[in-house]
Every structure is written in structure tokens, then in C-alpha cells.
Amino acid sequence: DTLKSFAVIREIQSVNGEEGCHRYIISNCHGPVDVARAMAMFRLCGWGEDPLTVDIVPLFESVNDLRNAGDYMQLLYANPLYREHLSRRGNQQTVMLGFSDGTKDGGYLMANWSIFRAKEDLTRVSREAGIEVLFFDGRGGPTARGGGNTYLFYGALGRRIESNQIQMTVQGQTVSSHYGIKQAAQHNLSQLLAAGLENNLYDRPERELNDTQRELIHKLAQSSYEKYQALKEHPLFLPYLEEMSTLNYYNMANIGSRPARRGGKDELHFEDLRAIPFVGAWAQLKQNVPGYYGLGSALQECEEDGDLHGCTALYHRSGFFRALIANAMQNLAKSNFELTRYMESDPQFGGFWQMIYREFELTREMVLKVTGQQVLLEDNSRARLSIELREKVVLPLLVIQQNALMRRDELRESENDYLLELYEKMIVRSLYG
After folding, report:
1. Is residue 63 classed exposed, middle or buried when 0-12, 13-18 and 19+ CB atoms within 10 A define those classes?
2. E strands within 139-241?
């Protein structure tokens, strides 16, 4: 199927014109060699020596690839063959950045900071090479996958980041909720348009980060990353997701755009997890780990170093940091540990549940300190009330789901396959809901 796709692109263009299909995205791109391989496959699969009327789009997702993205593209720009290809494409290079897999890999704060810095590096090397870089953001609906308020995010990008165009993915329920009716579509598109215009028309100090602010964000991101990495490396991390969450039921529900995991191995490895079911499983548990985990510990570390006032000043002066904290608050507000309080005394997973709960409580305490708010989202009553309303609506479904998970575990010891199948069907139906 992959081989055939190269030839099919040419067929689509012959019938519908180049705009019918002209971008080839390399998922989880690890550098220039992946771009070279994609171009070679086009040549081998029917294009031959004809001009390649396709934009090759590297998608950088892991923290390591985001860190090296600028160097990767600098090498490509220096390659005569690739530079010739770009000249035929109007000297424009589209680069995709993966919020979902970046967050899965590095945690909330590190992923967002890595993407911000990658955009700056890519802008710098592209401008030096005389290439206009276009950023295509792989943003999901939930804030833990790069969702949240798009105006706040795009309006906070400074002049070091190219923003002549705003391109992003819109997935799942976000399509209907943001663009399903004319008024909502007009509102959300107007916000994106306003953010793009403002970035090019106005100088705003809150969009530009000075060296001191950069050092502080980097320190917070690194501390948060280490906390998140320790969680990922915990021996109960994957068993907890497999046994206590709905992770393994996403395939049965058939509502994701991709399988729950890559490959066909029986044993689950972290790198095989797909971002959508990964974030979704934490959301169904109402623990929302990818949306805040490590942030509280990082802020507390700053407080212990006597620099919490620096974080407070950063929050009030940096639009980028303010948007990060606002999105983290949304994830905290959508969490409900009372739903899984019974896990606290579980003989196998009780300690692990308590560890996650302590970080949740710490993060809530620290973001309220930094923002000076008394309750989460105090400055955004519309979002706060919207979340409160939605949580009341979904709570019965989640209670049914947790009950079914508990009954399923009890029935595994018996031979009542009929009841086991019934409760598993109940879990799947609750996922649909």
C-alpha cells in the first residue's frame, strides 16, 4: 500500500491537478536521510527523472528530533539536488511538528518548549538559506495533544518564528465543535486570522522572550521532563495503563484514526503506543497525566531555589508561558481523582495511583500560586463553566465504565465468558459515549 501511494499521487494529479494531492508527510521523521528516502521512492515508483511536483514534509515528533530539526533542515538546504527541488516548489518548505507524540515522548512542558524552540531554529536556518518555512502543526483536540485556545498560542509567537501562514490539523470532535456551524467556524477562523495578522503587524513585548526568560522556561522544562521520564520508566507505568485504563479497548471501539499501538508485538512497549489512545486512556481515567505531569514539581523546585517570583513575572509578561499555564489549568480542571479513588488501596497499583495524585495536587497548588488565582481558570469563567457542565454530563458514563472495568477483573477469575463479554461491550460503548 505504501509503495502504491507514490504512484497514486501522480494519478490523482493527472485527473485533478497538482492541488488534488501535493504533500507527502514523513511521520516520525528522524532526519535528512528519511527525506532522501521518500524522494528516492517517488523516483522508483513511476516518477523517474521527471520534476517532482510534490512537497516533502518532514514531521518531527520526538523531543530529540525537535531539538535537532534546525540542523536537519540546514543539511537538506545545503544539498544541491534538494535545493533544486525546492526552487521548483517556490522556495517554500513545509515542516510539520507533532504536539501529540511530542507530549507523549517528553511530557507537557518539554514538548511545547521543544516545539517553540524548533520553530525558532527552523525559521533561522530557513531565512539564512532564502527559504520560506511554513509550519503545519499536528495539534489534537485535547490540550494534552496541543489543543486549547489557538488564538493564545499563535498570538504568542514572536518575530523569530515565521508565521505568514497558520496550518494545523483539526481532528475528531474538534471539527464539529469548532467548525460544525457557521457561527462557531466564523469565530474560530477569525481568531486564527487575527493571530496571524497581529504577529506581522504589531510589535508586542509579551511575544518576545529575553535570555533570562528563556533560561527559566528551559529550567522548568528540563525539571518537568525528568519527572515525567521517571514516571514513564516506572515498572508499573505500562501495566497500569493496560490493566486499569481503557487503552486496550480503543481498537475494539474503532473510533480512533489509527490502531492503539504500532506493530504486532504481543508485549506492549512504550514506543509502540499511539498518541491518541495514550492521551485518551488518561482522559477516560480523569487523570490527564500528559497535560500537566511534572509541571508542579518543576515550579516547586523553583520555589525551593527562591525563584518563584521569577515564574510569576514570567506568567504576567510572556504570552507563550501564559498560554501554557492556561492549557495546563484546563487539564487540571478536567481531572477527577474521586472517580478512581478506589485504586488508592489496590495492592498492586495503589502506590502508583497515589504518586500521580500527589503530582496533580502539587501542580494545582503551584499554578494557583504563580497565577495568583483562587480557583482554576478564575480568569476564564466561560471555560471554567463549560468544563463544569461537560464533566457533569460525562460523569455517569465514566462511573458505568469504571464499574464495568472492576466487574471485568472479577470475572477474569471465573469461566463466565458471557458476562465477561457483556462488561467488555459496556466498556466499549462507554468509549463511544
Report:
1. buried
2. 167-168
Q: Which residues contact 369 (CB under 8 A, 6 or more apart)?
A: 299, 303, 308, 312
Is-contact 144 290, C-beta < 8 A? Answer: yes
328, 327, 310: which is closest to 370 by C-alpha?
310
- What length is written for the chain? 433
The Cα–Cα gap between 187 and 176 comes to: 13
* Cell numbers representing residue 64 in the block: 530529540
Instruction: Identify the residue whose cell numbers are 504536539.
Output: 99
Any residues with CB less than 8 A from the CB of 56 and at least 6 apart, and which?
Answer: 24, 26, 35, 38, 39, 85
User: How does residue 173 score in pLDDT terms, banded at 50, 70 and 90?
Assistant: low
At residue 322, what is the residue type?
R
Judged by DSSP in three states, 48 sits in coil
CB atoms under 10 Å from CB of 317, counted, come to 15
Which residues on neighbouring strands pair with residue 168, listed in sequence order? Answer: 137
Give every CB contact of residue 193 below 8 A, 6+ residues apart in sequence.
Answer: none
Residue 164 CB contacts under 8 Å (≥ 6 apart), including other chains: 132, 134, 196, 200
Lowest-pLDDT range, 31-45, 91-105, 166-180?
166-180
- Beta carbons within 10 angstroms of residue 234's beta carbon: 14
Residue (of 144, 140, 121, 122) closest to 131 by Cα position = 122
> CB under 8 Å to 397, separation ≥6 — which residues?
430, 433
- The greatest distance separating any two alpha carbons of the chain, rounded to the nearest whole angstrom, comes to 69
Reported as a single tens digit per residue, the pLDDT across 309-346 is: 999 999 999 989 998 999 999 999 999 999 999 999 99
* pTM reported for the whole predicted model: 0.89
Separation CA 364–CA 295 (nearest Å): 9
- Tens of pLDDT, residue by residue over 91-145, are 999 999 987 777 888 888 998 899 999 999 999 999 999 999 999 987 766 665 6
229 to 98, 113, 224, 359, 385: CA distances (angstroms): 19, 16, 9, 14, 33
Q: What's the grid cell of residue 327?
A: 492549557
